[in-house]
Design brief:
The protein has one helix spanning 102-110, and strands at 27-29, 50-53, 60-62, 71-77, 83-88, 91-92, 96-97, 120-124, 130-134, 147-151, 156-163, 179-181, 193-196, 198-202, 216-218, 223-227. The chain has 230 residues and is mainly beta. The chain has two domains: 27-65 and 170-227, Virus Head Decoration Protein, Chain: A, CATH 2.40.300; 71-164. The strands form four sheets. A five-stranded antiparallel sheet has the order 1-13-12-2-3, with no helix packed on it. The radius of gyration is 18 Å and the shape is globular.
Length: 230
């Protein structure tokens, strides 16, 4: 009886790769450590992260795109945390369990009267960290950074702005997609990183919400063909 097998390349969740085309032709790029700090990427820099190149230095950082939607991270720390709330522009969510799923966090934020359904997308594992992307009525907007109130032990919940929305979006060259990080990397690293720069990408399996203007995205299949050639 035939067996099914799964082949992986390098470290990290690479289910975002749409086909083997391009995986043996990765380029090496140099990251800007100031754009990949441990505060922004407490669990490391994930495989599949879209990257752009800073024109002035030639170093790469997180792709910002020309959509400039606000992206914030929510990270749990300390010990003994049992629950927490998030506050956005004066409105506070219901209490969330320390092991809340991304769907739980999204539902709580969407329930706020100044957010609403369909205006945020939350990704991440149960217990965090979670990535909150503002969209819909709040897309292209430099929204206020959320705050949090933790409960239990010495637990902490830290909110950080990964990408500022609206007028504060990057215009340093990273608004042009260069490609995707091929394997997991350590935050703050200055070594060469492998860049997946051409081929098919499953955009719904990337570690962040992604839309690249000018690239051939097929919503029905959730596939995007990228070509970051220069």
């Amino acid at each position: 009886m035939p067996r099914l097998s799964e082949e992986t390349y390098g470290a990290g969740d690479q289910s975002w790769i749409g086909s083997p085309h391009g995986i043996h032709d990765c380029r090496t790029v140099a990251p800007d450590p100031d754009l990949f700090t441990a505060a922004l990427f407490p669990n490391g820099v994930p495989s599949g992260l879209p990257l752009g190149k800073v024109t002035a230095t030639g170093l790469v950082g997180p792709y910002t795109g020309d959509a400039s939607d606000e992206v914030q991270s929510v990270t749990v720390g300390g010990s003994g945390l049992t629950s927490f709330t998030l506050t956005f522009s004066g409105q506070t969510t219901e209490s969330l369990d320390d092991q809340a799923t991304a769907a739980d966090v999204q539902e709580a934020i969407e329930a706020l009267s100044n957010v609403g359904a369909g205006n945020v997308v939350v990704t991440g594992d149960a217990g965090g960290p979670w990535i909150v992307t503002f969209q819909g009525d709040l897309e292209n907007t430099n929204v206020a950074q959320m705050t949090s109130t933790p409960t239990g032990g010495t637990g902490t919940v830290t909110v950080a702005t990964v990408t500022a929305g609206g007028a504060d979006a990057s215009a340093d060259g990273r608004e042009v997609l260069l490609g995707h990080l091929y394997t997991d990397q350590k935050a703050g690293d200055t070594g060469g990183w492998p860049l997946f720069w051409h081929g098919l990408v499953r955009v719904d399996r990337l570690p962040v919400v992604f839309a690249a203007t000018g690239h051939n995205v097929h919503p029905s299949a959730q596939l995007s063909h990228i070509d970051g050639g220069e």
